[in-house]
Every structure is written in C-alpha cells, then in structure tokens.
C-alpha cells in the first residue's frame, strides 16, 4: 500500500497516541488501508536495485571520507604537531574549524601542505552539508500515486 504523507499525518492526528514514531505511523497506515480500499499498491519494481545503489554509494563515500581524514591527519602532524590535543578527532565540524585555525597559523614555508590540508577540510565539510538526511536515506524515492497532488513516501503496508 502506498500512502501519501498528508493522509498519514491526518491519521496520526485522529489517533489517541501523541507524537510521531514508527509504531504510530504503522497504525495510521493500517487504518487508512482498511478505510480506503482504493489506495494504490506500492510498486517494488526497481526498489531493491535503487536501495542497493544508494547503500553502495554511501559505503564508498564513507571509505573516501576516511581516506581524506587520514591524509589530513598526516598533513597536520607536520603542520601542527600535537594538534589532537586542541582539535580531538577530525570527525565533527568544531574539530575541523579548530584544525583550520591551526593550519592558518602554520609556518609560511609549509604553504603547499597548508593548502592541501585546507582542501581536505573543505571536502569533508562539503560531504557533511550535502549528505542527505537520515529520513531521505531510509525511504524509497517518491513516485506519483495517480491522484492529483499525491506524492507518497510516508510508508507502506504489505
């Protein structure tokens, strides 16, 4: 069953439980499926292939981010020995900001290393800002359900 997000939201509002979670959504979708027998069936054609492509792409990005982080670590060891005491692990934005400040204060003779390190930070930050949210990663792509203004992606019932 392919159910539009607006229908699921309306079903949640009518329910007794407050908030939004998987259990509440499942109940709302099940009630809608029973009340509206004309809802379109979910098309699973290509869904497994799409999900595999997305998972593979994410895995490749994680590996590449690890490589860039390792290169940044090697550059920082020369530019700012002991950098980890002030930055910590290079996994979050605040640590990358602190690393950027250390690089900007590096010796003038290390301009190439500094430029490469700043490029690595920019690449890591770009991945963080362009990565899809967890909610879009966990859902199949939206497809029109055949009704005007309906773009289902809220959930499905088998």
Quick gist of this model?
It contains seven helices and two strands, in the order E-H-H-H-H-H-H-H-E.
List the defining traits of the structure above:
single chain, 158 residues, mainly alpha, 2 domains, two-stranded antiparallel sheet, 7 helices, 61% helix, elongated, disordered C terminus
Fold and architecture overview:
The protein is an all-alpha fold and 158 residues long. The chain has 2 domains: 2-43 and 143-156, no CATH class; 56-130, no CATH class. It is built from 7 helices and 2 strands, in the order βαααααααβ. The chain has helices spanning 5-14, 22-35, 47-79, 84-87, 93-104, 111-130, 134-137, and strands spanning 2-3, 155-156. Strands 1-2 form a two-stranded antiparallel ribbon. α1 (5-14) packs across α2 (22-35) and α5 (93-104) runs antiparallel to α6 (111-130). The longest helix has 33 residues, at 47-79. The N and C termini lie close together (6 Å). Residues 133-158 have low confidence and may be disordered.
């Amino acid at each position: 069953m392919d159910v539009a997000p607006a229908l699921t939201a309306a079903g949640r509002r009518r329910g007794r439980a407050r908030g939004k979670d998987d259990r509440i959504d499942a109940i709302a979708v099940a009630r809608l499926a029973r009340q509206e027998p004309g809802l379109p069936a979910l098309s699973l054609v290509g869904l497994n292939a799409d999900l595999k492509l997305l998972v593979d792409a994410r895995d490749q990005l994680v590996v590449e981010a690890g490589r860039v982080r390792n290169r940044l670590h090697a550059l920082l060891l020369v530019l700012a020995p002991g950098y980890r005491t002030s930055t910590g692990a290079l996994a979050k934005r605040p640590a990358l900001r602190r690393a950027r400040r250390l690089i900007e204060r590096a010796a003038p003779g290390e301009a190439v290393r500094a430029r490469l390190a700043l490029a690595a930070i920019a690449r890591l930050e770009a991945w963080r800002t362009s990565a899809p949210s967890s909610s879009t990663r966990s859902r199949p792509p939206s497809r029109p359900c055949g009704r005007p203004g309906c773009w289902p992606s809220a959930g499905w019932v088998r």
